[in-house]
Amino acid sequence: MNLKTTVAGNQFETPFLNASGIICQTQEELDSLEATKELGGIVTKSATLQPREGNEQPRYYDLAHGSINSMGLPNQGYPFYLDYVQHEHSKPTILSVAGMSAADAIELMRKVQDSDYEGLTELNLSCPNVIGHPQTAYDFEATEKILETVCSFFTKPFGVKLPPYFDLAHFDGIAKVLNKFPLTHVNTINSVGNGLVVDVDKEQVVTKAKGGFGGLGGAMVLPTALANVRALRLRLNDDIAIIGTGGVTTGADVFAHILCGADMVSVGTQVIKEGLGVYARLQKELEDIMAEKGYESLEDFRGKVKEL
Ligand code: RRO
């Protein structure tokens, strides 16, 4: 069975990625991703200009149907991750970068442009957890301005990480902006921002920063993730690939993401719950479904979800 997939000419042996932020902050974590043979590629933690400790603990909380996080962008700073992706690796890398402001985002992209890195970069426009900073990609004008500036000097392959949208007018709006630029891909969705989980016994919230407001992930966000993959696939230029992220716990969920149009599929919360062994299970479950349906490659069903 052939699980190969391509994003902007980068060949991946499987469609599986780690979601950015999941086991990809330290060298040791990144090494463990590289050693996970079912992973098609490696995504780094979103890198900022300066190293960051992130928000106060507790900042991740496991839920029956997912998770809530308020990590606050803990990372070692861009030089570490930019150096990491310039080393030889057994699979393609995606360098994720996140500005604390538009000016930061642009400066980070300049650093990548000025480096020898020629692989994929992903500009995270959707972190929900930085205190006092709204998610950029909910502001279409600001998003367009940043992309205009970046595209005035950036000549390497890059895509963007998007927050979830919930209204068809917003899908239209963001697609109209994104289609103006030579993006390799969009990664959709980031966590569902500013959820609130309450521990009824303790009568309190479960994460510290922002009064407990945090990003939701895991099984509970699957329909939102599929909607975003599908809605964007229907609206974006064909040459913009889609990385589907959100809500994957089974091979059937991976199949559904691809059916909605995903070229690759990332896993976040379920890796935390189950460990990196999750990818072997997901691959087997995906292959079993494909075999049962007589599909030999991802192209056989990608984007072909039927409407009633
Ligand atoms: O570090 C985080 O709090 C974080 C980031 Br940058 C992101 O993009 N998405 C998320 O759920 N958490």
UniProtKB/TrEMBL annotation:
UniProt cross-references to PANTHER family, sorted A to Z: DIHYDROOROTATE DEHYDROGENASE (FUMARATE), DIHYDROOROTATE DEHYDROGENASE (QUINONE), MITOCHONDRIAL-RELATED
Gene that this polypeptide is encoded by: pyrD
Class of enzymatic activity (EC top level): oxidoreductase
Listed HAMAP family: DHO_dh_type1
Catalysed reactions listed for this entry: (S)-dihydroorotate + A = orotate + AH2; (S)-dihydroorotate + fumarate = orotate + succinate
Pathway: Pyrimidine metabolism; UMP biosynthesis via de novo pathway
UniProt subunit comment: Homodimer.
List of residues binding substrate: 45, 69-73, 124, 190-191
Cofactor comment text: Binds 1 FMN per subunit.
Alphabetic keyword roster: Cytoplasm, Flavoprotein, FMN, Oxidoreductase, Pyrimidine biosynthesis
Biological function: Catalyzes the conversion of dihydroorotate to orotate.
Record-linked Pfam families: DHO_dh
Full protein name: Dihydroorotate dehydrogenase
Binding, FMN: 20, 45-46, 124, 161, 189, 218, 246-247, 268-269
Ranges of residues in domain Dihydroorotate dehydrogenase catalytic: 3-290
Catalytic residue positions: 127 (nucleophile)
Required cofactor(s): FMN
Similarity field: Belongs to the dihydroorotate dehydrogenase family. Type 1 subfamily.
Entry's transmembrane regions: none
Single Gene Ontology MF annotation: dihydroorotate dehydrogenase (fumarate) activity
InterPro entries cross-referenced by the UniProt entry: Aldolase_TIM (IPR013785), DHO_dehydrogenase (IPR050074), DHOD_1A (IPR033886), Dihydro_DH_chainA_dom2 (IPR023359), Dihydroorotate_DH_1 (IPR024920), Dihydroorotate_DH_1_2 (IPR012135), Dihydroorotate_DH_cat (IPR005720), Dihydroorotate_DH_CS (IPR001295)
EC id: 1.3.-.-
Cellular location(s): Cytoplasm
